[in-house]
């Protein structure tokens, strides 16, 4: 009934004015850089929408009802449909390859065909952030007015048995999504094709490698002579990303003033040392070691020799060429109360690679060493509360009364208490979700939620103990972790070769290009 009203001419006119006003207001008040980010990375939205439709998720969620369905269960049900559809060759739209071809990560083993739930949760959360689905509880999603409009009305059983009739007799909205988001399928087909063309033992199977037909990992590739322009652009773009943070947020991201005099900060993958420079100026008693790839280290040293030679000459700061997939060079005993700082590093790498980096740091850590991760922390699109295990939900046994997350510094919602706004502030924070999928489709990497970062760090012996947001609504966060026991199952990880890292793993840290003074005098 309410939907019928939207076809009344007077209502239509009013709706148009409201939408126009909202769009114009957003463009007028939002920082231009963020509006540019929306325009630059908004291509993820049709890809996610296409996945929603092609995997019949509106139909699965309709059958689940308003309480929604956990992403693991959505993934399982999609897998069932996928197997049913795959066994029926000859889907009308996708030819013999089946509806899901290339739409997402999936195993070749027909028993294991499924959408990876950890990817699916990010896709559904991006859609929820754009008001196209709802995250009703952590990782539990439900239909809303928009995803409901893409619902074909078929039962899930029908879609498993006769997918070719999905659009018959419908209002055509699901078919429209399938048609106009199809360019994404074209792209994924091309990706699949180039996957076939490329050697099967490709280093990382990262889309970047496939697109550029190179076996070299991105950061090495960037340093080759023919990519000099790209490397230069990358450096400037990193400076541009400073706009994601509140300027100088690193200064408040850690209680630097509580460190003993002359404590060492190792800026791991520190680039040309922009963050270290801020710290050096703000905390004259800190010493800084900036580690990066050899070519970047050279650029950093050149820049610092021009801008602040006294920091290098005095021994307060140094650059070191070091591959973070190799063991950390031993730190002098006096410096084992070090802070390892990783700014915008974890989001560049898939979980297995992040584990390797953090494990090397964990092995180098002393009892008082701290790890500081500075990266986007993706909020959930619902209140960030855990189910209370003592009061399971009557309907599904999984979610009941919620209890607040225990970590100091975490917040249930970024929206004002009691407001109807999305707890992650929806489109105002779209950039982090765009970047998440950009990292995913380029490097098989991702931005992570606090839960994901906590689990990842814990799996290799780091316990996150505090989170600070950069302030003023930024999703950029600083996570402080302390060393704990390394779980037994992770101890063997360092022996396992990482695809694409064979060569660089053998590299040792070359040299400290300037000495970090170990004396206790500030
Ligand atoms: C996204 S940038 C972040 C730079 C810096 N932390 C910042 O916040 O501006 C990632 C950095 O990781 C460095 N990097 C990539 N692979 C590396 C490796 N194997 N060992 C050390 N550094 C690496 C890159 O050269 C680049 O400087």
UniProtKB/TrEMBL annotation:
Keywords: Methyltransferase, S-adenosyl-L-methionine, Transferase. Residues 83-112, 500-522 are annotated as: Disordered. GO terms for biological process: methylation. InterPro entries: COMT-like (IPR016461), COMT_C (IPR001077), SAM-dependent_MTases_sf (IPR029063), WH-like_DNA-bd_sf (IPR036388). Residues 261-380 form the O-methyltransferase C-terminal domain. Gene3D superfamilies: Vaccinia Virus protein VP39, Winged helix-like DNA-binding domain superfamily/Winged helix DNA-binding domain. The keyword Endoplasmic reticulum does not apply. GO terms for molecular function: O-methyltransferase activity. It comes from the Eukaryota. The keyword Nucleus does not apply. It holds the Pfam family Methyltransf_2. PANTHER family: O-METHYLTRANSFERASE CICE (PTHR43712:SF2), PUTATIVE (AFU_ORTHOLOGUE AFUA_4G14580)-RELATED (PTHR43712). This is S-adenosyl-L-methionine-dependent methyltransferase.
């Amino acid at each position: 009934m309410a939907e019928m009203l939207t076809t009344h001419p007077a209502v239509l006119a009013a709706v148009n004015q409201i939408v126009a006003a909202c769009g114009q207001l957003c463009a007028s008040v939002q920082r231009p850089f963020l509006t540019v980010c929306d325009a630059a990375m908004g291509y993820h939205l049709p890809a996610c929408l296409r996945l929603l439709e092609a995997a019949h998720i509106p139909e699965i969620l309709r059958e689940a009802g308003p309480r929604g369905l956990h992403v693991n269960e959505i993934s399982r049900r999609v897998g069932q449909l996928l197997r049913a559809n795959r066994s029926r060759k000859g889907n009308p739209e996708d030819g013999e390859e089946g509806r899901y071809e290339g739409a997402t990560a999936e195993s070749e083993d027909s028993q294991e065909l499924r959408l990876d739930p950890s990817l699916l949760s990010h896709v559904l959360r991006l859609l929820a952030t754009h008001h196209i689905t709802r995250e009703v509880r952590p990782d539990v999603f439900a239909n809303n007015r928009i995803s409901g409009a893409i619902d074909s009305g078929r039962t899930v059983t029908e879609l498993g048995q006769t997918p070719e009739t999905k659009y018959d007799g419908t209002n055509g909205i699901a078919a429209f999504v399938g048609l106009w988001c199809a360019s994404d399928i074209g792209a994924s087909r091309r990706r699949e094709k180039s996957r076939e063309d490329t050697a099967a033992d490709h280093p990382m199977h990262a889309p970047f490698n496939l697109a550029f037909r190179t076996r070299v990992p991105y950061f090495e590739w960037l340093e080759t002579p023919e990519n000099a322009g790209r490397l230069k652009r990358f450096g400037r773009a990193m400076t541009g990303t400073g706009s994601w943070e509140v300027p100088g947020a690193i200064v408040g991201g850690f209680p630097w003033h509580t460190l003993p005099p002359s404590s060492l900060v190792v800026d791991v993958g520190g680039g040309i040392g922009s963050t270290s420079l801020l710290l050096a100026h703000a905390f004259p008693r800190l010493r800084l070691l900036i580690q990066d790839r050899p070519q970047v280290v050279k650029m950093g040293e050149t820049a610092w020799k021009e801008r602040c030679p006294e920091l290098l000459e005095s021994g307060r700061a140094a650059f070191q060429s070091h591959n973070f997939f190799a063991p950390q060079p031993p730190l002098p005993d006096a410096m084992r109360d070090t802070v390892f700082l990783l700014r915008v590093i974890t989001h560049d790498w898939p979980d297995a690679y992040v584990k390797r980096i953090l494990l090397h740091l964990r092995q180098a850590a002393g009892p008082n060493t701290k790890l500081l991760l500075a990266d986007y922390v993706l909020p959930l699109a619902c209140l960030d509360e855990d189910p209370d295990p003592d009061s399971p939900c009557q309907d599904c046994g999984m979610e009941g009364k919620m209890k607040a997350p225990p970590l100091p510094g975490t917040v249930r919602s970024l929206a004002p208490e009691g407001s109807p706004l999305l707890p992650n502030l929806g489109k105002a924070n779209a950039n982090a979700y765009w970047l998440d999928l950009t990292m995913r489709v380029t490097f098989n990497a991702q931005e992570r939620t606090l839960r994901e970062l906590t689990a990842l760090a814990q799996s290799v012996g780091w316990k996150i103990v505090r989170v600070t947001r950069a302030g003023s609504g930024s999703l950029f966060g600083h996570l402080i972790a302390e060393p704990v026991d390394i779980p037994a199952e992770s101890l063997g990880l360092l022996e396992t070769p990482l695809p694409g890292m064979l060569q660089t793993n053998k590299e040792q840290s070359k040299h400290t290009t300037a000495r970090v003074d170990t004396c206790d005098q500030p």
